[in-house]
Design goal:
about 325 residues, Arginase, Chain A, alpha/beta, 10 strands, 10 helices, two-stranded antiparallel ribbon
Length: about 325
């Protein structure tokens, strides 16, 4: 019998383990299909800090989520063995060392036949994750939902930060440029070419104003069709949402996606060969109501519901 979250009818939701959805904690990964882990880091940020507290707060808010997705019929815990494997032990004083630790840890995790789901942490965590993912699967398709393209060359002279991730990933051949989709981009830039340069590499970009008022199910279906069975990584920056829905983040931008659009997009990606995913940039100090972490927890559940092998009832 696969692991099940502790029911709120067996133990009050305000008590119990501090794991994602109150799942069992695991120190061994031999039998897991999905490993949920935290990467509590914010030393790659350039504006507001606080994402080091993201994994803990997202897990806290996830206690409200029940195991069956009544809108889609997804029953992930009926067919997948899922557990929370805890947090990576990053070096809180060194970004470069932390990125090395993440890549090395993921290399060990990926020796097992499972899908890792990371809770960030700032977006710089995705680069070492992609290094480990590509070492196993080769260049992957990428679905990147974000207010920012994160393709700067340098930030304060540093080449590995939360704003340079996907330039480095492209340069290192970790992702397939023609199957990289950046969704929700908006805001202001350092240069007029902040978005267009990556489009020249082959990235397909969907700016938020083009998506205002639209059901994103069709866009998700088109992305799914174009990617086909290519191994795919999904990275979801919570600042892709409008600050009205997710104010607790390091670099908020007005005019973003809605929570309904976020769910439409994720649900439409069902059928992709997903080999890993993350949700990043939740900053609890700027999330006084807990709403941003609650949204993040639910989006992680939506991602869990579209992983390969999920049963639908």
């Amino acid at each position: 019998m696969p692991n099940q979250p502790i029911s709120g009818n067996d133990l009050a939701r305000f008590s119990g383990p501090g794991t994602f959805m109150r799942l069992p904690a695991a120190s061994r990964m031999n039998d897991l299909d999905v490993a949920v882990l935290g990467v509590p880091m914010d030393i790659g940020t350039s504006w507001r800090s606080g994402t080091r507290f993201g994994p803990k707060q997202v897990r806290n808010e996830s206690a409200m989520i029940r195991p069956y997705n009544l809108q889609t019929g997804a029953a992930p815990f009926d067919s997948l063995q899922v557990a929370d494997i805890g947090d990576l032990a990053i070096n809180t004083f060194s970004l470069s060392d932390s990125l090395h630790i993440i890549a090395e840890s993921y290399g060990a995790i990926l020796k097992h036949n499972l899908i890792p789901m990371a809770i960030g942490g700032d977006h710089s965590i995705t680069l070492p994750i992609l290094r480990a993912i590509a070492a196993k699967h080769g260049p992957v398709a990428l679905v990147h939902v974000d207010a920012h393209a994160d393709v700067n060359d340098e930030m304060f002279g540093e080449r590995e930060t939360h704003g340079t991730v996907f330039r480095r990933a492209h340069e290192e051949g970790l992702i397939s440029a023609s199957k990289t989709y950046q969704i929700g981009l908006r805001g202001t830039g350092y240069t007029a070419e902040d978005f267009t340069e990556a489009a020249g590499w082959g990235f397909q970009q969907f700016l938020a104003p083009e998506l205002w008022g639209r059901d994103l199910s069709q866009l998700g279906a088109e992305v799914r069709r174009d990617i086909g069975d290519t191994p795919t990584y999904i990275t979801y920056d919570i600042d892709s949402l409008d600050p009205a829905f997710a104010p607790g983040t390091g670099t908020p931008e007005i005019g973003g996606l809605t929570t309904a659009q976020a769910m439409q997009l994720i649900r439409a990606l069902r059928g992709l060969n997903i080999v890993g995913c993350d949700l990043v940039e939740v900053s609890p100090p700027y999330d006084t109501s807990g709403n941003t972490a609650l949204v993040a927890a639910n989006l992680l559940f939506e991602l869990l519901c579209i992983l390969p092998g999920v049963t639908y009832r």
